[in-house]
């Protein structure tokens, strides 16, 4: 962005700079950008390049406060995710991180575990297996994925291998060829050809895509109450599994960023 640019992205930058957010990148916005660059030891150009925007999000969302609370690899991905998918407030960030942290075991798991026992298959995927089939598929993750994800979410049939290739990846697991295809337009690498890139490079961004695509920011913007967290959890999880942990994580992050 530079002088002459217009639109919503300019407004977001203006809000982070705490100047009038008219969406018009004029002389006053350029001056504010230059001042920001100077105070943050960034080359002074008056234009909002990737480095400048990255630092703006770090400052605006006060990410340094989350050091030693959120893993560095997650913190490093927040500015990109925030810019691409609309994490424009600390309230949104707290809701987002609390859901991601719970869904991924505190940011530890980035690939879906499909190593189900016979009993687990009948419990979790009962619509796809009878007793005899569960015995045949138990503890065979690739076969399980190819069966339960076949012929949906843009995947081919069981023999296509799409279920395994496009199994869940990321902190809120991106699943299915159609979802990988949609997310692919937001990244430079081709995640359709190499889906593992989602787990390696974009575990947080893929979760941001999920929030943006499913209009979850509107729920986040309703506030910090347990009711809001519950509504959000239902949309993310399909139920209220782990609700108390999500509430606790949200409250922890919100307290830190509110001080």
Would you write up a description of this structure?
- With 259 residues, the protein is an all-alpha fold.
- Helix content is 56%, strand content 0%.
- The longest helix is centred in the last third of the chain and has 16 residues, at 243-258.
- The chain is elongated.
- The model has no long low-confidence stretch (mean pLDDT 97).
Task: Summarize this structure briefly.
By secondary structure, this protein is mainly α.
Which key terms come to mind for this protein?
mainly alpha, 15 helices, elongated
Low-confidence stretches: none
Estimate the global geometry from the Cα principal axes: elongated
Q: With helices defined by DSSP (H or I, 4 residues minimum), what is the helix count?
A: 15
Report helical residue fraction: 55-70%
Beta-strand segment tally: 0
SS content category: mainly alpha
Order of helices and strands: HHHHHHHHHHHHHHH
Rg, rounded, reads 21 Å
Average pLDDT number:
97
Indicate the topology.
Elements: H1 8-16, H2 27-39, H3 50-60, H4 72-85, H5 90-103, H6 118-124, H7 131-137, H8 141-148, H9 162-165, H10 177-184, H11 196-201, H12 203-213, H13 217-220, H14 226-237, H15 243-258
């Amino acid at each position: 962005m530079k002088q002459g640019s217009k639109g919503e992205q300019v407004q977001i930058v203006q809000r982070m700079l705490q100047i009038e957010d008219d969406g018009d990148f004029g002389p006053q916005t350029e001056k504010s950008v230059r001042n920001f660059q100077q105070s943050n030891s960034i080359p002074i150009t008056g234009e909002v390049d990737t480095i400048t925007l990255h630092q703006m999000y770090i400052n605006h969302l006060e990410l340094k406060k989350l050091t030693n609370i959120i893993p560095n690899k997650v913190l490093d991905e927040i500015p990109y995710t925030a810019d691409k998918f609309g994490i424009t407030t600390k309230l949104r960030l707290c809701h987002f991180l609390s859901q991601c942290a719970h869904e991924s075991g505190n940011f530890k798991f980035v690939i879906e575990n499909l190593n189900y026992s016979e009993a687990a298959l009948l419990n979790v995927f009962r619509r796809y297996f009878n007793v005899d089939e569960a015995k045949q598929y138990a503890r065979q993750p690739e076969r399980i994925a190819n069966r339960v994800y076949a012929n949906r979410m843009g995947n081919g049939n069981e023999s296509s291998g799409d279920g395994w290739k496009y199994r869940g990846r990321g902190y809120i697991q991106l699943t299915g060829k159609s979802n990988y295809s949609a997310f692919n337009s937001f990244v430079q690498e081709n995640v359709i050809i190499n889906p593992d890139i989602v787990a390696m490079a974009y575990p947080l961004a893929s979760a941001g895509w999920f929030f943006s695509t499913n209009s979850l920011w509107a729920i986040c913007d309703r506030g910090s109450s347990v009711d809001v967290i519950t509504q959000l959890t239902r949309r993310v999880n399909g139920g209220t599994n782990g609700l108390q942990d999500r509430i606790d994580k949200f409250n922890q992050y919100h307290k830190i960023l509110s001080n």
